[in-house]
Amino acid sequence: MHPPNHPDFAIVHNALTLRESILEKLTSRAWRAGHRLPTERQLSVEFGLGRSTVRRVLAELKDKGFITQTVGSGTYVADGVGRALSEIAAAAAPMATSPAELMGARLVLEPAIIALVIGNATAADFSRMEECCDKGESASTIEDFEVWDGRLHEAIAAAAHNSFIAAVFQRMNEVRAQSEWGMLKRRSATPERRLDYQREHRELVAALRDRDGIRATQLCIDHLTRVRRNMLGY
Question: What is the pTM of this model?
Answer without folding.
Answer: 0.60
